[in-house]
Specification:
The chain is mainly β. Strands 1, 2, 3, 4, 5, 6, 7, 8, 9, 10, 11 and 12 form a twelve-stranded mixed sheet that branches. A hairpin with an 8-residue loop joins strand 5 and strand 6 (84-95). 25% of the residues are buried. The protein has one helix at residues 148-155; strands at residues 6-14, 19-24, 27-37, 43-51, 64-75, 84-95, 101-110, 115-118, 124-133, 139-147, 162-178, 181-197.
Length: 198
């Protein structure tokens, strides 16, 4: 697959078989979760979307597979679940014996002022929102984080700065209080290992 301004390669375990997600532009799309181990042993659980034609490949739940594609976002207006939904649109998918892998390359524009802060444990972190253009006029809005020295660099950038980020797509569980209930939710963000101006 040719790399673009939005490229991700994931290798991990297919947790369950694909289920119907939605239809669009005369195509059916299916979804399944992919579990990708980090070096720490923790696993990121990432939602994969694929076109029906890719289901013709011989893959099944429990298989160790590789997915190449793009990270997409959309606003969830149903009021149920996260407001910003992050998924990976598969362009190719295949069984592999390659080890677990999570690689992201993004080229985009900062669309919010970076938010620099220090965690209670004293770690420096900077939150960014990156707008990444698609081919046909739409954009994906992708939350990114940088740590330490990279966080300090990112905190100096202004809205409109064009940047390149390399890193990984991670999932993070958290508890949100809604009324008198505590609900577990999952957030997705790109954790930067490298950032630069373009």
């Amino acid at each position: 697959m040719d790399k673009t301004n939005n490229y991700i390669k994931l290798c991990g375990e297919m947790v369950s078989k694909p289920e119907y997600s939605h239809s669009g532009k005369f195509e059916k799309f299916y979804t399944f979760p992919l579990s990708v181990l980090r070096l720490s042993g923790a696993a990121d659980r990432i939602n994969i979307i694929l076109r029906e034609e890719l289901l013709q490949k011989e893959i099944g739940d429990g298989d160790h597979i590789c997915v190449e594609g793009e990270i997409h976002s959309f606003n969830n207006k149903s009021g149920v679940g996260n407001k910003l939904v992050i998924t990976v649109l598969a362009r190719d998918i295949y069984v592999t014996d390659e080890g677990d892998l999570n690689q992201v390359e993004l080229y985009g524009t900062l669309c919010k002022k970076p938010n620099f802060r220090v965690t209670p444990m004293g770690r420096e972190i900077c939150d960014m929102m990156l707008a990444v253009n698609r081919k046909y006029g739409k954009s994906d809005y992708l939350p990114c984080i940088a740590w330490g020295r990279l966080a300090k660099i990112a905190s100096q950038w202004d809205v409109g700065k064009e940047i390149h980020i390399s890193g990984r797509l991670q999932s993070r569980c958290y508890i949100k209080t809604e009324g008198d209930q505590q609900i577990e939710k999952t957030a997705f963000e790109i954790s930067a290992a490298f950032i630069e101006e373009t």
